[in-house]
């Protein structure tokens, strides 16, 4: 793994760990940089902003969750709304940091205008649009 890739992974891992402790609004870029032993300016070499870091974490979390949801609903018969609801609940149950978190969504929805919001969906390629 190259240094830029390992640094990006370290930044995202630290951000994910900090999100498990508190909400995104309570985490500063300086605290994040301190946690991984980099200067704030070095973190900004890898990501454009604090928001970009947390949106990348959120994007990864959504991909993992959507894959789990897709697998869970694969065996649900067509038209079985209760089965879909059970599958949805099962994929969210017990996911402390892996589930899309409401407080993260609310804060990231306030990202600067023009900030790229990416959502990848299986079978649908890449889809751009506002956060849900």
From TrEMBL:
Residues 28-47 bind DNA. It comes from the Bacteria. Pfam families: TetR_N. Residues 5-65 form the HTH tetR-type domain. Keywords: DNA-binding. InterPro entries: Homeodomain-like_sf, HTH-type_TetR-like_transc_reg, HTH_TetR. This is HTH tetR-type domain-containing protein. It comes from Asanoa siamensis.
